[in-house]
Design brief:
- There is one protein chain.
- By secondary structure, this protein is of the alpha/beta class.
- It has a single domain, classed as Rossmann fold.
- Helices cover 45% and strands 18% of the residues.
- A three-stranded parallel sheet has the order 2-1-3, with helices on both faces. The protein has a three-stranded parallel sheet with strand order 4-5-6.
- The termini are far apart.
- 36% of the residues are buried.
Length: 154
């Protein structure tokens, strides 16, 4: 059984994610949180397989909460895929730096949301296809070696 905490400041979104995920025999939503701090508390208490986290939640946002659950300094991390309405590169990069295991948009199809949860629970990760190309481009820019100087022409 894949145990999930759903964190989103909108009750209707939490209810929708719960309904989609719990329609599967192998997924159980063990808790819901309306902000990042509560998501961290619930995750540490319930020890789910992952926390499906929104980015923008007052007062503690999802990126801060992700760092507290899955950041580079966390020894016993809990995987955190991010689900957000906003397709913003800054959010994607910040979430991944904070330790996010994946990044999907909330307009995701139900079957794809289930597949994303299963992928992260199986120690994988998932990035929405529309975001993947931009990530690859940015990564390539940041890791591109300096050009090799050509020898002088005789």
């Amino acid at each position: 059984m894949i145990r999930v905490v759903v964190a989103d400041d909108q009750a209707v979104v939490r209810a929708g994610f719960r309904a989609i995920l719990e329609s599967e025999e192998d997924i159980e939503v063990v808790a819901e949180a309306a902000d990042g701090a509560r998501a961290v508390d619930l995750a540490r208490h319930t020890r789910p397989d992952l926390v499906l986290m929104d980015v923008r939640m007052p007062p503690t946002d999802g990126i801060t909460a992700t760092a507290r659950l899955a950041g580079p300094d966390i020894a016993d991390l809990i995987p955190v895929p991010i689900a957000t309405t906003f397709d913003l590169d800054d959010d994607v990069f910040s979430a991944l730096r904070a330790g996010a295991s994946g990044f999907v948009l909330k307009d995701i199809e139900p079957d794809d949301l289930v597949a994303a949860v299963r992928a992260v629970a199986a120690d994988g990760g998932l990035i929405a296809p529309g975001i993947t190309r931009r990530l690859i481009t940015e990564f390539a820019k940041s890791t591109r070696p300096a050009p090799i100087p050509l020898p002088p022409t005789p």
